[in-house]
C-alpha cells in the first residue's frame, strides 16, 4: 500500500510540475506576442521635490495591459522576461517610450526627469551604453533628463567590470540611482568608488518609519550618509504625511508614493505637472 501511495504522490508531483512548466511556457509565448503588440506600456509615478512641492521627475513602471482587459503587474512577468532574455527587448521598449514621453513633456514646457529601471541582464549587454546613447539621440532628449535605476545587486554583480560601465554611462550625462537602497549588498565602499548620484530609500524602511525605531534609525543613517557623500535622496513608498515629517530638510530630497499618485498612464501625469503638492506635506 505504501509503495502504491508513494507512486501516486510522485505522479501527482510530476503532473503539477508539468502543469507549472506548461504555464510558464504559455506565459513566455504570451509575453513574446505582447511585446510585438501594444500591450506592454510604461506607467509613470511622480517624484516630488520636498522643497518646492512640484513634480521634478517620474519613474517608469512597466505594465502589461492584455487585449482581454485588466492589468498585469511587473512582478508577474519581469522574472520570466529575465529568465528568457526577453527583458532586453522589454527594457529597450520602456527606455524608448519613457524618453519620447519625457521629450514630449519637455517640449510642452515641463522638464521632467525620467527614471528607468535597468535589469541585470540589460546592464550586462556589451552595447548597453550605446543603446542608451542611441535612444537619447533618436528622441532628442537631454541626457540630464534621464536617470537609470540600478539595484545594489546589479551594481555589485561584477564590481570591477561594472565600474567601467557606470563611468561610460555617466559620461553620457545621465544620472545614476541606486534602487532599493539598503536591502541588497552590505558593503558601502562602492558608494565612494562608483559614480552614483542618488540613493532611493527602499519602501520597506519607510512603511513603518513612524512606529519602528529601527527603521527610523536606518532611514536617518541613509540621510546622513547621502548628505556627507553629497548624494541625492529619493524616499519611496510615501503613503502618509507623517512619513515625510521625520525626513529632515535634506538637500534635494524627492518623495515618491501613493500619497501623491500611484503609477498611472502618461495622460494622467500631464495635468499633475502644474500642480502644487505642498498641501499634502507637513512643514519640514
Ligand atoms: P521598484 O523599481 O522598486 O518600483 C517601486 C515599486 O513600489 C512599484 O511597484 C511602485 O508601484 C510601488 N510603490 C510606489 N509607491 C508606493 C507606495 O506608496 N506604497 C506601496 N505599497 N507601493 C508603492 P511596481 O510598479 O509593481 O514594480 C515592481 C518592481 O518591478 C519595481 O520595483 C522594479 O524592480 C520592477 N520593474 C518595474 N518596471 C520595470 C522595468 O521597466 N524594467 C525592469 N527591469 N524592472 C521593472
Ligand atoms: Mg525603481
Ligand atoms: Mg525601489
Ligand atoms: Mg523593487
UniProtKB/TrEMBL annotation:
Keywords assigned: Phosphoprotein
EAL domain boundaries: 24-277
Superkingdom of origin organism: Bacteria
Keyword rRNA-binding on entry: no
KW Membrane (keyword) present: no
Residue ranges crossing the lipid bilayer per the database entry: none
Coiled coil regions in record: none
The name this protein goes by in its record: Cyclic diguanylate phosphodiesterase domain protein
Natural source organism: Paraglaciecola agarilytica NO2
High-level lineage: Bacteria, Pseudomonadati, Pseudomonadota, Gammaproteobacteria, Alteromonadales
Amino acid at each position: 500500500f505504501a509503495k502504491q501511495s508513494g507512486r501516486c504522490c510522485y505522479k501527482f508531483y510530476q503532473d503539477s510540475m508539468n502543469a507549472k512548466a506548461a504555464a510558464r511556457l504559455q506565459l513566455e509565448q504570451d509575453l513574446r506576442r505582447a511585446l510585438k503588440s501594444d500591450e506592454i506600456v510604461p506607467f509613470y509615478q511622480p517624484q516630488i521635490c520636498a522643497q518646492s512641492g512640484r513634480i521634478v521627475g517620474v519613474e517608469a513602471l512597466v505594465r502589461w495591459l492584455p487585449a482581454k482587459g485588466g492589468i498585469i503587474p511587473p512582478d508577474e512577468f519581469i522574472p520570466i522576461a529575465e529568465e528568457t532574455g526577453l527583458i532586453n527587448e522589454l527594457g529597450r521598449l520602456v527606455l524608448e517610450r519613457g524618453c519620447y514621453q519625457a521629450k514630449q513633456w519637455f517640449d510642452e514646457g515641463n522638464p521632467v526627469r525620467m527614471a528607468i529601471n535597468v535589469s541585470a541582464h540589460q546592464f550586462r549587454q556589451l552595447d548597453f551604453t550605446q543603446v542608451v546613447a542611441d535612444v537619447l539621440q533618436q528622441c532628442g532628449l537631454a541626457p540630464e533628463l534621464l536617470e537609470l535605476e540600478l539595484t545594489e545587486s546589479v551594481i555589485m554583480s561584477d564590481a570591477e567590470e561594472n565600474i567601467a560601465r557606470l563611468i561610460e554611462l555617466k559620461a553620457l550625462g545621465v544620472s545614476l540611482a541606486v534602487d532599493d537602497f539598503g536591502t541588497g549588498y552590505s558593503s558601502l565602499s562602492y558608494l565612494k568608488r562608483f559614480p552614483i548620484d542618488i540613493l532611493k530609500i527602499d519602501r520597506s524602511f519607510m512603511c513603518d518609519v513612524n512606529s519602528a525605531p529601527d527603521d527610523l534609525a536606518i532611514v536617518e543613517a541613509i540621510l546622513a550618509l547621502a548628505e556627507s557623500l553629497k548624494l541625492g535622496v529619493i524616499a519611496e513608498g510615501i503613503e502618509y504625511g507623517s512619513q515625510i515629517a521625520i525626513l529632515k530638510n535634506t538637500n534635494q530630497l524627492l518623495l515618491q508614493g501613493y500619497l501623491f499618485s500611484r503609477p498611472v498612464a502618461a495622460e494622467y501625469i500631464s495635468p499633475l505637472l502644474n500642480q502644487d503638492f505642498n498641501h499634502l506635506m507637513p512643514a519640514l
